[in-house]
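Continuing the series of single-chain predictions for the mutant panel. This is the parent chain; the variants come on the following pages.
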Amino acid sequence: MRHVISLLLENEAGALSRVAGLFSARGYNIESLTVAPTEDASLSRMTIVTRGSDDIIEQINKQLNKLIDVVKVVDISEAAHIERELMLIKVRAIGKDREEIKRMADIYRGRIVDVTDSSYVIELTGAQDKLDSFIQAIDRDLILETVRTGACGVGRGDRILKI
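Parent structure:
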């Protein structure tokens, strides 16, 4: 089962390495990882997407809580949450494909952020399924490059991750 784990950790050198090391040392896979400072400059928020049974996720949470840099851990996928991903996709846009790509970007509420004589760079945000769907909807031969951030998420309503 897919889980989205959010954690607060000390914003200092080596913290990310220790978290990633915990996963690799135990043979757990990280599907995506995003990290950035929070409103408190001494803390970073990390969002990890991983897969595993409830027992494995419980073990991951316990191990994360043991790390000295980790302040708080929450599996936000346990309850209602909002999850988004950012994708920048560079596509070939020549001739008749130019208008079709623009139309597809509009349908998916993407923004064309760079235009050249032969390509567009489109910015898309949304759930993983939406971004995957966009990639499937356009001709694969037109895709020049794809960059994705991985998921970031926040609990809905009163659920917050704060110390």
